[in-house]
């Protein structure tokens, strides 16, 4: 898609009342993760590693950068996730942690309100052509009184969860991320999971496929992940399915290669199914 097409699609999203969660090549994005990324990443050593991850909200990428990943490649069918990542990255680079929360977590995602004064503080950090897109979208939305929540799938805004779900969600870690966010290369691959192996050229230490298994199916996702193993370094691992709030018995029926993380839904546990490259 060229720049004009991308801007038109963004404006179309703002004009639509339908809050559908269906995924396509340009649709609504997750503003913040709904997974316990922090709990998942605690099982891995990212320092100097090469990572492939879903883009989605960008929080997998940001967590990997915070933890010292050498290179991060991000895939997603939805092209808007790439534009949103650059927006979020610039926000982190340009404002304080308290301003980040005020702009994104307390206003933009849950209320659809853009704080223009804050946007002007970080807009110059947004790389081109992403800056042109966001300038157009924000100007168009504000001029027409449109609800910016229409850009997002979820309106999860209980900030007390984020300090346990998101690696950078504290003053200290946010400051560290600001130092590290520009040190590693982030590349984007526009692809769905089923065709991803056709797009890969590099090998990775770890791959994170998020909860795509909820939509593709756990067994089908495991089959796809097995096809990705040639692109995993020896001793590397694919976290191929994040499963929300399931019993251990059910998880064991899927795979013996799993680990437990705290649930972000309620006082229970989620599980991550993995494949290891021998």
What topology does this entry show?
Blueprint: H1 3-15, H2 37-41, E1 50-54, H3 59-66, E2 71-76, H4 80-94, H5 97-111, H6 116-122, H7 130-143, H8 159-165, H9 171-180, E3 185-190, E4 204-208, H10 213-216, H11 218-228, E5 232-243, H12 248-254, E6 258-262, E7 269-276
Helix pairs in contact: 1-7, 3-9
Notes on the structure:
The protein has a 7-stranded mixed beta sheet with strand order 3-2-1-4-5-7-6, with helices on both faces. The chain is built from 12 helices and 7 strands. It has 278 residues and is α/β, with parallel strands linked by helices. Helix 1 packs parallel to helix 7 (130-143) and helix 3 (59-66) packs across helix 9 (171-180). The protein has helices at residues 3-15, 37-41, 59-66, 80-94, 97-111, 116-122, 130-143, 159-165, 171-180, 213-216, 218-228, 248-254; strands at 50-54, 71-76, 185-190, 204-208, 232-243, 258-262, 269-276. A hairpin with a 6-residue loop joins strand 6 (258-262) and strand 7.
Keywords for this entry:
single chain; 278 residues; alpha/beta; seven-stranded mixed beta sheet; 12 helices; 7 strands; 42% helix
Mean pLDDT comes to: 91
The structural class is: alpha/beta
Indicate the proportion of strand residues.
15-25%
Largest sheet: 7 strands, mixed
Contiguous runs where pLDDT drops below 50 for at least 5 residues: none
Give the terminus-to-terminus CA distance: 40 Å
| Separate helix tally | 12
Helix content: 40-55%
Radius of gyration, whole Å: 18 Å
Q: Which sequence of SSEs, written as H and E, runs from N to C? A: HHEHEHHHHHHEEHHEHEE
């Amino acid at each position: 898609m060229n720049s004009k097409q991308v801007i038109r699609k963004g404006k179309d999203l703002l004009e639509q009342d339908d809050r559908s969660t269906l995924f396509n090549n340009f649709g609504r994005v997750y503003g913040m993760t709904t997974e316990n990324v922090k709990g998942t990443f605690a099982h891995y050593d990212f320092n100097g590693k090469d990572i492939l991850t879903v883009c989605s909200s960008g929080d997998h990428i940001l967590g990997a950068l915070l933890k010292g990943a050498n290179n991060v490649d991000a895939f997603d069918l939805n092209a808007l996730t790439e534009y949103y990542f650059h927006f979020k990255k610039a926000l982190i680079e340009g404002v304080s942690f308290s301003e980040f929360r005020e702009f994104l977590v307390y206003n933009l995602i849950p209320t659809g309100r853009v704080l223009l004064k804050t946007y002007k503080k970080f807009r110059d950090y947004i790389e081109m052509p992403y800056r042109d897109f966001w300038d157009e979208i924000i100007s168009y939305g504000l001029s027409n009184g449109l609800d910016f929540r229409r850009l997002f799938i979820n309106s999860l805004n209980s900030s007390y969860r984020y300090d346990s779900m998101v690696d950078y969600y504290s003053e200290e870690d946010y400051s560290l991320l600001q130092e590290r966010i520009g040190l590693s290369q982030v590349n984007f691959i526009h692809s769905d999971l089923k065709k991803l192996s056709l797009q890969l050229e590099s090998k990775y230490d770890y791959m994170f496929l998020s909860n795509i298994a909820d939509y593709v199916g756990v067994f089908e996702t495991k089959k796809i992940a097995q096809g990705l193993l040639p692109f995993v370094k020896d001793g590397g691992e694919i976290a191929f399915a994040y499963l929300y709030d399931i019993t251990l018995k059910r998880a064991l029926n899927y795979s013996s290669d799993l680990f437990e993380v705290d649930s972000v839904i309620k006082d229970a546990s989620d599980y991550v199914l993995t494949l290891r490259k021998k």
